[in-house]
Design brief:
binds ligand PQ2, alpha/beta, 12% strand, five-stranded parallel β-sheet, binds nicotinamide-adenine-dinucleotide
Length: 261
């Protein structure tokens, strides 16, 4: 059977596989203690990784110093040694050092041990690149230019962030807790398709503002209609009467001014 070219999405090679890597409680090594290491450490801590920083105390960036003082990271106060890569549980290695030879050595050792590695600013020595990330609660938006223009990634990320509603993170938190409750109400595997359809309908029916305003009682109320596969609207739930037909016409036609000027 002949399939036309436009029936399925075209393949656009040359990209990266953008994933959300789960490193919670996993060990990550950062080599270096400068400005770039400070950024890498924050990225890892934001993902709840167990971070070990290998770098001499001399010349520490103040932010890295702060993380060490606050015991947010484990500090090994010396230069990198190959034995640092021993042990079965290292999820990744990030290097941010001003020594290209040492970087290449670390990269080669990581390859031998099959540990994923990022050598800051050296694309051929990266199993993965970092991106520019916007964060709002559970929401993360990452921009990658696939090595073409890191500063542009930063600019595009900020531009995207400006277009997002300020309460988006909060709305996502509410949706997260509603989904958890739903899984308690309808826990059976066989409920999967119905659960997903219902949740999709909630997200399409409720505005972000309404989701932000949703409290625990509202969730229980919404969920009480799950069995009949119904999603009641925010206004129904709050007992706000629908506008009468005449009023609706007036509202549609009303342009916000009284034509006094
Ligand atoms: C996004 C961000 C994330 C982060 O690092 O956290 C990031 N670089 C950032 C900033 C930045 N980096 C550089 C500048 C100077 C201006 C400029 O060159 O544009 C600025 C701007 C600044 O400092 O403001 C210099 C630079 N970067 C790389 C090279 C090597 C090369 O290109 O060969 C050179 C030296 C080029 C030279 O010598 O000329 C390489 C990489 N940098 C990446 C990520 C990966 C690709 C990401 C992508 O393509 O989108 C990749 C491949 C590997 C990696 O390091 O993971 C972060 C912004 C975070 C934020 O604030 O939003
Ligand atoms: N992505 C960016 O925005 C960006 C900007 C500037 C530099 N860089 C690159 O990132 C790297 C680090 O930049 P930086 O500004 O953080 O550098 P930096 O000079 O401020 O810090 C380097 C750190 O690495 C430590 N170090 C050096 N050799 C080490 C070793 N063998 N073992 C352990 N620690 C060691 C130093 O003690 C220091 O703490 C450089 O290679 C630089 O080219 C990236």
């Amino acid at each position: 059977m002949a399939i036309s070219d436009d029936e399925f999405p075209p393949v656009q090679g040359g990209g990266s596989l953008l994933l959300a890597w789960q490193v919670r409680n996993r060990k990550a090594l950062v080599v270096g203690g400068g400005n770039v290491a400070a950024g890498r450490i924050l990225n890892l801590l934001n993902a709840d990784a167990k971070v070990t920083v290998i770098t001499p105390s001399t010349g520490l960036h103040p932010e890295v110093h702060h993380r060490i003082l606050k015991r947010q990271v484990t500090h090994i106060d010396r230069s990198f040694q190959p034995s640092d890569l021993e042990g079965p549980d290292i999820a990744m290695v990030l290097t941010a050092i001003d020594d290209p030879q040492a970087s290449t050595q670390i990269y080669t050792l990581c390859k031998q041990k099959r540990i994923p590695v990022n050598v800051a600013d050296v694309p051929p020595e990266c199993d993965f690149y970092f991106g520019s990330v916007h964060r709002d609660g559970p929401l993360q938006v990452m921009v990658s230019t696939n090595g073409n223009g890191p500063k542009l990634a930063n600019i595009v990320r900020k531009q995207i962030a400006e277009t997002l509603p300020t309460n988006l993170g909060e709305a996502i938190v509410k949706v997260g807790s509603l989904r958890k409750r739903l899984r308690k109400v309808a826990s059976a595997c066989s409920e999967g398709p119905k659960r997903m359809e219902w949740m999709t309908k909630v997200c399409e029916t409720w505005s972000l503002e309404e989701l932000c305003d949703m409290d625990e009682d509202d969730m229980d109320n919404l969920l009480s209609h799950y069995a009949e596969n119904k999603v009641i609207t925010y206004k129904e739930l709050r007992g706000i009467p629908p506008p009468s037909e005449g009023r609706e016409v007036f509202e549609e036609a009303f342009d916000g001014s009284f034509h006094w000027f």
